[in-house]
Amino acid sequence: MKVLKFGGTSVGSVKSILSLKKIVEKEARQQPVIVVVSALGGMTDKLLYTAQLALNGDQGWKTEFDAMVDRHHKMIDTIISDPSSRENLFNTVDSLLDQLKSIYFGVFLIHDLSEKTQDAIVSYGERLSSNIVATLIKGTKWFDSRDFIKTERVNDKHTLDSELTYKLVKKAFADLPRVSLVPGFISRDKTTERTTNLGRGGSDYTAAIIAAALNAECLEIWTDVDGFMTADPKVIKTAYTINELSYIEAMELCNFGAKVIYPPTIYPVCVKNIPIKVKNTFNPDNSGTVIKQKAENDRKPIRGISSISGTTLITVTGLSMVGVRGVNRRIFTTLADNGISVFMVSQASSENSTSIGVRDQDAKRAVEVLNKEYEKEIETGAMFPMHAESNLATIAIVGENMKHTPGIAGKLFGTLGRSGVSVIACAQGASETNISFVVEGQSLRKSLNVLHDSFFLSEYKVLNLFICGVGTVGGKLLEQIKSQYEELKERSRLKLNVVGIASSKKAIFNRDGIDLNHYHELLEESEPSNAEKLKTSILGMNIFNSVFVDCTASKDIASLYQDLLEHNISIIAANKIAASSEYENYAQLKQTALQRGVLFRFETNVGAGLPIIGTINDLKHSGDKILKIEAVLSGTLNFIFNELSAKVPFSETVRRAKEQGYSEPDPRIDLSGTDVVRKLVILSREAGYRVELSDVKKELFIPSDFFNSTEEEFWKNLPSLDESFEQKRKELEAQGKKWRFVATLDHGETQVALKAVDHNHPFYNLEGSNNIVLLTTERYKEYPMQIQGYGAGASVTAAGVFANIMSIANI
Ligand code: ADP
Ligand code: ASP
Ligand code: MG
Question: Does the keyword Nucleotide-binding feature in the UniProt annotation (predicted)?
Fold first, then answer.
């Protein structure tokens, strides 16, 4: 014999109820089955809500009630085709609904809703649904569970009288029909005979009690997910079904919010060693989960994660507590006497403070009764008044394998720390099957995600990317991410999830990943954004393993870095503004990244995709010292001086640089050396020198008044320089030399200047817009290290940004 329980969603729609019918009929061919059903999905909430409307004198209760009638009628009309069965069922259902209506009307008239009345109201959900299912499945016998599920009043709560109930269940099912149909959840007080219930979610418990009383072969819980999963699939999209788990593990997970099974359900079947199967009504072929005494060892350190939000931590603290006996006894007795349940306790070994986790709704009362209990001690100053912190969340990681695996707590807290989640309190039972801890409510989702990722999906590392700027570099980067996605997933076990994209005016977000084929259209359709809004949205998403990628040249965006880093978001910047801003700012950003365990990387600030900054850092880390840097860092200026010839005058080379996209939109930024100065400052800082922009000596090749006029005047006056350039060029040509705009760091001194180099110099043959860097270090002294290649261009820059992103994936 088996007991099959179907939850609200399994009887909530025509599709699900027909699936239920098939499942039950198939099982009943093998053996007798007892089917326990919940109310139609969402019905219990509606019954309670409507009762509140009636209590408040709100006429709206009628509309809600009519909707309930309509829902049940429609369901019957659709699924019961036989006219006489249908008529009988309508009679039963309508008489129940009439009673319900009268109760609501009474509540409405006298403005009173006692617990007794509410219990009566809420029982109609299961009474209605069970009659419908009993008619749907031919040859079924319907039972009123109130006749055998008996409760008594203990601590002001309905509590099962197991002994009596077991006796009555055995009697009720002495002759076992092929299919028995039982409403879940509802019960009757053994003394007063009033209708009671087993608490929200209690249909699971009804089924377990029957299974235990009758020594069923198995208890099956049919629901709307593929079994007991590693975490709540509504929160963690990557949660997956656990094949097997032990009673202890299931109990620990359910006690901490795994709603899939009502916690009291497990004990009665565990005692009888009856396995529980959790299966999906919508996907009956899936094997689901088996809960039993000894579950298979899946070699994972933990079996599942669960959580409860809306928790409060009450701290009982005072100097008199140290070594005093009985303080804890008084705390727990006081709370128990007042019907407040405690789900977590943490006490430091110094014994002067005990933290207790309770539900938010119990917090106020808990503080009151504890303050009262310790009134005298508080008055004398030996103890402090209770301190309560609400809106927290409690998370539990559970698994019997924890006993044998060292380092679980380390991994747990390390993972949370790297994501910027601070743990407010924690507790581990000596059984070592559960570590529970408390975090801010707003960190709950993020904590669950990072933990799930690190304990269950370690085969994939996920990076959540916010890409800011969709111009040439940002656009190319998105293309590269799209084309490499599968390859990285397969080969490197890395998922690059683009969760945010911002242009200069708009932004889109999707924590499950943006469709990179259509981000342009999605941006078009989205709301206007700006830097501040962008920051608010990113921080609001509070997503784990986040990386902010700045492909803009915007000062406003650069000013967000500090806040983002403080929230444990790594920064990859193609934007040079932050790294070349005041030294203090640069240093603080680096310091914050270090403290937070995230990265602030800006490799492409110098030499686009060339590995210059990374190399300098690698040398430094290995104990080398950078003595001198000589570099041609402006692709634009190099292009200009390479183009210059007898046929192409200076002004024309500048024009070409602009037209071919080598220069900044206003080429004076290049000609004034501003861009090179920034790059030199960044390199010098990375090499270990404290340098500001103003420290760099500049020897420019264009008179300064060219930079003070308007852009239009600049272009007009530019040809006036052609003659002198041509003259100098000829002289250089005669000497076999070429011009290069060279940036130099020499023992801390920085300079940019136009220099003539001969054919022996490594800079002489620098083609097109290439860059070159010579690093003289203590180890590379006689022959400096040389890095050379394209120093500009969207593809190579995007590739450099990509490389920086990959460096985060590898930490
Ligand atoms: P029913 O109406 O069938 O009793 P419930 O809503 O009470 O269904 O329980 C099923 C729900 O439990 C799932 O839809 C899921 O969102 C939630 N849930 C929470 N934690 C887990 C978990 N670890 N595994 C599966 N489901 C879970
Ligand atoms: N219908 C009840 C509830 O929603 C009992 C159950 O579904 O298990 O809480
Ligand atoms: Mg349930």
Answer: yes
C-alpha 799/C-alpha 604 separation (Å) is 9
Q: What is the DSSP letter of 421?
A: P
The confidence score (pLDDT) of residue 105 equals 98
Q: Identify whether the C-beta of residue 408 lies closer than 8 Å to the C-beta of residue 402.
A: yes
* Tokens, residue 720: 């006036």
Q: How far does residue 233's CA lie from ligand 1's centre (Å)?
A: 8
Measured CA to CA, the distance from residue 452 to residue 448 in angstroms comes to 6
Q: Is 12 in the pocket of ligand 2 (CB under 6 A)?
A: no
Angle separating helix axes 360-373 and 327-337, nearest 10 degrees: 130
Q: Which run of H or E residues covers position 239?
A: none
Cβ neighbours of residue 511 under 8 Å, at least 6 residues apart? 464, 499, 541, 543
Q: How much is the pLDDT for 404?
A: 75
Rounded to an integer, what distance in angstroms lies between the CA atom of residue 612 and that of residue 631?
11
Per-domain residue ranges of the chain: 2-41+125-224, 304-454, 461-608, 612-791
3-state secondary structure of 775: strand
Contact criterion met (CB below 8 Å) for 397 and 451: yes
Give me the architecture of the 612-791 domain, per CATH: 2-Layer Sandwich (3.30)
HEC letters along 111-154: CCCCHHHHHHHHHHHHHHHHHHHHHHCCCEEECCHHHCCEEEEE
Give the SS3 label for residue 482.
helix
CB under 8 Å to 202, separation ≥6 — which residues? 184, 185, 262
Q: What superfamily would CATH give domain 304-454?
A: VC0802-like (3.30.2130.10)
Residue 517 has φ and ψ, to the nearest 5°, of -75, -20
Which one of the ligands is nearest to 221 CA?
A: 1
Sign, CA torsion 286/255/419/409: negative
Q: How far apart are CA 580 and CA 561, in angstroms?
A: 13
CB 72 within 8 A of CB 47: no
Backbone dihedral region for residue 89 (phi beyond 0: left; psi -120 to 50: alpha; all else: beta): alpha
Q: Which run of H or E residues covers position 747? A: none
The pLDDT tens digits for 193-222 are: 999 999 999 999 999 999 999 999 999 999
Query: Which CATH class name applies to 2-41+125-224?
Result: alpha beta
Which of 9, 232, 238, 255 is the pocket-test mutation for ligand 1 (most atoms within 8 Å of CB)? 232
Tell me if 145 CB under 6 Å of ligand 2.
Answer: no
661 near 746, Cβ under 8 Å? no
Instruction: Using the predicted structure, report yes or no on whether residue 351 has a pLDDT greater than 80.
Output: no
Distance 8 CA to ligand 3 centre (A): 7
Q: How far apart are CA 779 and CA 163, in angstroms?
A: 84
Q: pLDDT by residue (tens digit) across 401-410?
A: 888 788 888 8
Does residue 7 line the site of ligand 2, with CB under 6 A?
yes
What is the residue-wise DSSP string for 671-734?
HTTHHHHHHHHHHHHHTT----GGGSEEE-SS-THHHHS-HHHHHHHGGGGHHHHHHHHHHHHH
Amino acid, single-letter form, for residue 440: E
Residue with tokens 């899939």: 260
Q: Which CATH number is 461-608 given? A: 3.40.50.720
Residue 739 CA to residue 757 CA, distance in Å, equals 6
